Amino acid sequence: MLEIDGSFGEGGGQILRTSLTLSALTGRPFRLNNIRIRRKNPGLQAQHLASVKVAKLLADAEVKGDFLGSTLLEFRPKEIQEGDFTIDIGTAGSVSLVSVTAIPLMINRRTTLRILGGTDVPLSPPIDYMRLVYLPVIEKMGIRGKIKLLRRGHYPKGGGEVLLDSFRGNPVDLNLKEFGTLVEVRGVSHVSSLPGHIARRQAEGAREVLKTLAVPIHIEEEVRAEESTGSGITLSGIGSSVVGSSSLGERGVRAETVGERSAKGLLKVLETKASLDDHMSDMIMNFSFFANLSYTGSEFTEHCKTNLSIIRKFLDIEVSLKGDKPFHIEIRKRVL
């Protein structure tokens, strides 16, 4: 059984999520201790327990320590299962982060997964990022899938609902050394249970910042009622690869400012000429189980560093890393 110290590196939930995914894929059990031990609320929280629960279901695993506040978890996977599953986080915990745990386990299996929780919450990629950036990037590896947004959930109420379905493909090596020429910006500006003009004003704020790019800008304005209250905007820049940025509405912050923040974030990534932004640079690493990876990331964050360390424990890989902001990395399976 692999022994993993949950306090090293960024010391957060990323260690848990990557361990769960790769354990299920490789069949290697692990024991994770000191889970989030340095955080204000140490141990497993509802969002982390949801990732444990989904991995337990999909891998038919034997698990010890899967309770609120636990700082020790043992996970023994069996065969990956097929079927229709539902996970309720029970809070506004991030649906996107639970999705990242589950999707690699769903590839080429007759599996659907319904997740209830927060679709647009702080400190995690919104669900529109998963649709506008995550899906197009893994498609470049030959993997296609569907992320259907059924209902939005904002902090603190949650109540969002997403359906993951039809992840299929024959994975090929990823080679994204350059972003290339920007050809288009796409986005979604949404508002839930608030005046509809907020979505329009967020989009206008973003367009004003991005107009100097001289490329087509297509931002969908989405207005929903009778859901949790909130707003936000997600943007994607499309070239040879896809990068993204997002911003959530805040009480007392003008809608135009929310749009401007997301646009400025996108410009910052584009200036690096990286093929993947900081979120995707991290999340794509788990796909080294399926194929070799070569890409340029906007920033080698502590999340990336920690994630790579965990991956090395599960997979026999060779890694070449150059730079920091941006960085270029090659992850290849070791040939014996």
TrEMBL record:
UniProt GO molecular function: ATP binding; RNA-3'-phosphate cyclase activity
Enzyme kind, highest EC tier: ligase
Active site: 303
Any GO BP: RNA processing
GO CC term (a single one): cytoplasm
Role played: Catalyzes the conversion of 3'-phosphate to a 2',3'-cyclic phosphodiester at the end of RNA. The mechanism of action of the enzyme occurs in 3 steps: (A) adenylation of the enzyme by ATP; (B) transfer of adenylate to an RNA-N3'P to produce RNA-N3'PP5'A; (C) and attack of the adjacent 2'-hydroxyl on the 3'-phosphorus in the diester linkage to produce the cyclic end product. The biological role of this enzyme is unknown but it is likely to function in some aspects of cellular RNA processing.
Protein name: RNA 3'-terminal phosphate cyclase
Taxonomic source organism: Metallosphaera tengchongensis
